[in-house]
Amino acid sequence: MTRPGPLILLVEDEAPMRRMLRATLRAHDYQVVEAGTLREGLAQAAGRNPDLTLLDLGLPDGDGLDLVRQIRRSARTPIIVISARGREHEKVSALDLGADDYLTKPFGVQELLARVRVALRHAARTESEDPVFESDGLRVDLEHRRVLREGQEVHLTPTEYKLLATMVRSSGKVLTHRQLLHEVWGANYEGQTHYLRVYLAQLRQKLERDSARPRVLLTEPGVGYRLRSPD
Amino acid sequence: MTSRRAYAATIAIMAAVTAPCLLWRSRLTTVDVAMVLLLGVVIVSARHPRGPALLASVLSIAAFDFLFVPPYYTFDVHDGAYLLTFAVMLVVALTMTRLTGQILEHAAEAEDRARRAAALAALNAELMEAERPAEVLATLERHVAEVAGGEVCTLTPRQLDADPAEWPPATRELLANTPERVVARQVYEDGRTAGLGTARCTDADVLVAPLASGRRLGVVVVRPEADRPPTPGEIATIEALAEHAAMAHERTVLAEQGSRARAEAEAERLRSSLLSSLSHDFRTPLATIEGAASGLLEEDGAVPPGERRELAGSILEESRRMTRLVANLLNMVRVETGALAVQKSWQPLEEVVGVALLRLEEQLARHSVEVDLPPHLPLVPVDELLIEQVFINLLENAARYTPAGTAVAVRAWETDGAVCVEVADGGPGIPAAEQELVFRKFYRAVRPRGDDAREAVAGSGLGLTIAQGIVSAHGGRMWVEPRPEGGAAFRFTLPLSGPAMPAPPAESASRVS
Prior knowledge:
- The structure holds 2 protein chains of 2 kinds.
- In chain A, helix 2 packs parallel to helix 3 and helix 6 (158-169) crosses helix 8 (193-207).
- Chain A has helices at residues 15-27, 38-48, 64-74, 88-96, 109-124, 158-169, 177-184, 193-207, and strands at residues 7-11, 31-35, 52-56, 58-59, 62-63, 79-84, 101-105, 132-135, 138-141, 146-149, 152-153, 174-176, 217-220, 224-227.
- Chain A is globular, with a radius of gyration of 18 Å.
- Chain A is built from 8 helices and 14 strands.
- In chain A, the strands form 4 sheets. A 5-stranded parallel β-sheet of chain A has the order 2-1-3-6-7, with helices on both faces. In chain A, strands 8-9-10-11 form a 4-stranded antiparallel β-sheet, with no helix packed on it. Chain A has a 3-stranded antiparallel β-sheet with strand order 12-14-13.
- The mean pLDDT of chain A is 90.
- Chain A starts with 6 loop residues before the first strand and ends with a strand.
- Chain A is of the alpha/beta class.
- Chain B is of the alpha+beta class.
- Chain B has 3 domains: 3-110, no CATH class; 147-297, Beta-Lactamase (2-Layer Sandwich); 340-446 and 458-495, Histidine kinase-like ATPase, C-terminal domain (Heat Shock Protein 90, 2-Layer Sandwich), CATH 3.30.565.10.
- In chain B, strand 3 and strand 4 (215-223) form a beta hairpin.
- The model of chain B is unreliable at 449-457 (pLDDT under 50).
- Classes of the chains: A alpha/beta, B alpha+beta.
- Chains A and B meet through helix 6 and helix 8 of A and helix 10, strand 5, helix 11 and helix 12 of B.
């Protein structure tokens, strides 16, 4: 018998959806506790100490964002929110409140498992670690401040590098426009999304094989950006 | 000029013509003097007909007798022949007074008529543009105010019956008291102008004219500046304006009823085609999903593993199809009801195109997509999620209606004040007759070839309608044109005017890494 897998708190009011998620997660060796309401979710989060919370924002008895706030008050455990397409504001609010990632309904099993893995990996990593990122022919070495594409050194401006480094440290995870602007330009620039878009377009020109079909620097429409998980 | 000043001026003029005669009395004959005095009468009557002219006539004879007919400084007349002179002078003076008075009146009337014609022409020119009854009434109010000055309002029959508390403040102010309200009601009932400046209901401080053309549509209420009663000419003008406005009002009401009826018929047609489309487009995938899922649930072993995979695959495929259909229908409703909330921010088009291409990777697998965006294309103020949907719908359309192996090209360029985007395909093209139709709701082109089983899956017939609706909501335009080399080119414009965009902070040129 193997060691029991990470414990996932599943907060979802729709029974068929909950059943599907539970079956999928159990099939991949996760332990699952379930909650159908916000109150139950709050109680389970406090009592069971889950390694990760999977939270549907559309709950009948309250705002899912409250649960994000509540959990963040006491713990750093990862939270992945689930919401419908077209409710990007809600997702952005959850992410800015400290949720780690999101899934848009409907989503596939692969996507769900990838998000869970990335979130658990980031939670397990220590802060000081400066990883070497490698994916799709791109190599970023934060310790030596080197960026290579197909083995060729790429020259970046300081802002471009800072933006890329920020994304590398959260590779695989979505970062909202606000989070990136705050990190790279500072608190006063949180509303200036177009800076970010311009610099990201420049980064894609330098780092992607085809900047119109990015493979590494991915757009999360209406939410932010995501650096692909390392290979 | 007030009448007191007119009389004063008359006396002054008569004194002015009398003084030189008195000065040269010894050298002038009485006939000369009579002529000069009559000149004074002419001058006065040309400026002030009626009272002042009559006064001038009397003054001229009195002055003639008193100052110029011997014995001087008395009204006594020794020579009886002078009595005839007086009589002739009086007749001449009165005749001239009457004639000049008539000329003046005619001139004033002609001026009145010209002013009325001009006012009517101005009103009619504006009424031609008016499309809604409320616009007609507002236009009328403005023009009446120009004629009479002061304040103007119109009252519809509904307002006349309603509690004055529900009137607009301006109306409440004009019809603050009972006499005015009584006049308004009475004019509406009998269709004849009354109030200030007329012979009826003179205790009201407003003029009320009927607003009617065949049917009674309400009244116009005017309170002239400083309670000056409107002249008969102004009243006639106001009545004419009201009559013309009433005709225009009827026209707009009829037009509105007509367009409402058309819209209702269109909505009815839409509802029925929506229902038939829905029942077909939803039932087919649902039947597939139900069948496949029940197959998967059969006792183990009954369905071999290969088939199990296939069943699961069709469940997945059909659910995706339904997801797309639901999204399309929701978007259609948003476009139709004007509920599209466009949240613009400055975007590089490349990013929006990139997201659409990634999402359509599977559908476009058998086409080669070429993206050609100039490097210095400006950022465009768009709602990224909506414009992404436009690209998805256009690309999906290209994938669906052009044969596998053909190329699809996405291009963009800056034109004056806008960016023009093109999604061009290498398919059979769209016949000229269908180039407008393809944007219609539920319109599905007849497929040029049916050689592939996948091609039997038709679209919802909504994609292009939605795309066009989204582009319009951005202030742009979408159309399709044939490509010289064959195929169809869907083009749309996105205006570059939008929220201000501050430049990014400057960055030092030094390089890292």
